[in-house]
């Protein structure tokens, strides 16, 4: 029997629970000196299957878990039952999976991580950050980005985005820190009325206790620093490392290596230092409103 802590009760999205269970499986295996190849043979699979399980990339089969826990000497009945219970929770479908008919798998993974994050840091050079968009502004932006899609699908995209935004108003919301380009705030997507309502919403959001919004002035050159938008997610669970989400036109990179996430963390800090101070955000938004977006 190893000294790996027993899982009792955890609150979080299934995506993060899978990563926690996988990480503890890896620690159990390494503590016993069992190779991935030998672990794979124990469940009639390959070492790559063990790798996917330990990364939380695939659901857990109870038969496989029982075989692995026995191989790793994790035999205490109460501890095993707690472990298997959490694995069942990790296999549950997230609310966003109802949109699997159009939602890319990589984006579903990101939503699952976002829903369980304790800290969200984001840089956005093109639009208002998605978690701070009003419904009308979100519709206008999505119609601009996906002009070929029918209105019905755009409306589903907006509904998904608004559901994601609910994490900001829950009982224990994540801390969020957004840096947005000033040029992005001047673009009147949806027309003047929609744009004004969006900036007014940002003024209210910037005053929220756990919402930090900084504006990056035009002369700083944020895109040259960051090379595109990104979101860094941090979790309360020590087993789950930081994750960076870097979207492209048709896909997104989900980066988990410490060497990668450290670079993005440094870039986020650099952008924050070069952006206008938090205390100036409301003044800048007021000035944009007064100037009419020019």
Question: Can you offer a commentary on this structure?
Answer:
The protein has about 290 residues and is α/β, with parallel strands linked by helices. It folds into 2 domains: about 80 residues, lambda repressor-like DNA-binding domains (434 Repressor (Amino-terminal Domain), Orthogonal Bundle); about 190 residues, Endonuclease, Chain A (2-Layer Sandwich). It is about 50% helix and about 10% strand. It contains 13 helices and 6 strands. It has a 6-stranded mixed sheet with strand order 3-2-1-4-5-6, sandwiched between helices. Helix 4 runs antiparallel to helix 5 and helix 10 packs antiparallel against helix 13. It starts with 13 loop residues before the first helix and ends with a helix.
Q: Summary?
A:
The chain has 294 residues and is of the alpha/beta class.
How many structural domains are formed by the residues? 2
Which fold does the CATH topology of the largest domain refer to? Endonuclease, Chain A
Number of helical runs?
A: 13
- Corresponding CATH architecture of the largest domain: 2-Layer Sandwich
What spatial order of strands do you see in the largest sheet?
3-2-1-4-5-6
| Strand portion | 5-15%
Low-confidence parts: 1-11
H-E string: HHHHHHEHHEHHEHEEEHH
Extended strand count: 6
Helical content, roughly? 40-55%
Shape: elongated
CATH class of the largest domain: Alpha Beta
Structural class: alpha/beta
Integer-rounded radius of gyration: 22 Å
Largest sheet report: 6 strands, mixed
| Average pLDDT reading | 89
| Distance N to C terminus | 67 Å
């Amino acid at each position: 029997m190893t000294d790996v802590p027993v899982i009792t009760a955890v609150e979080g999205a299934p995506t993060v629970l899978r990563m926690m269970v996988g990480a503890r499986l890896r620690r159990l295996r390494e503590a016993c000196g069992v190779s991935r190849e030998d672990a794979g043979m124990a469940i009639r699979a390959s070492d790559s299957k063990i790798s996917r399980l330990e990364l939380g990339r695939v659901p857990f089969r109870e038969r496989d878990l029982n075989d692995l826990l026995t191989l790793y000497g994790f035999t205490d009945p109460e501890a095993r039952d707690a472990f298997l219970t959490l694995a069942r929770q990790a296999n549950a479908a997230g609310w966003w999976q109802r949109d699997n008919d159009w939602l890319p798998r990589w984006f579903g993974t990101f939503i699952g991580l976002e829903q369980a994050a304790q800290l969200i840091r984001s840089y956005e050079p093109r639009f208002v950050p998605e978690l701070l968009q009003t419904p009308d502004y979100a519709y206008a932006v999505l119609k601009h980005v996906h002009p070929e899609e029918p209105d019905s699908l755009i409306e589903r995209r907006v509904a998904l985005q608004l559901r994601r935004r609910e994490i900001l108003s829950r009982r224990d919301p994540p801390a969020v820190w957004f840096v947005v380009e000033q040029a992005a705030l001047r673009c009147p997507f949806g027309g003047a009325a929609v744009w004004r309502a969006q900036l007014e919403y940002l003024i209210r959001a910037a005053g929220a206790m756990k919402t930090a919004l900084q504006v990056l002035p035009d002369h700083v050159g944020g895109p040259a620093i960051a090379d595109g938008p990104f979101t860094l997610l941090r979790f309360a669970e020590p087993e789950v490392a930081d994750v960076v989400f870097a979207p492209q036109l048709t896909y997104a990179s989900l980066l988990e290596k410490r060497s990668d996430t450290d670079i993005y963390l440094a870039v986020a800090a650099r952008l924050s230092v070069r952006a206008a101070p938090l205390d100036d955000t409301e003044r800048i938004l007021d000035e944009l409103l007064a100037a009419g977006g020019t």
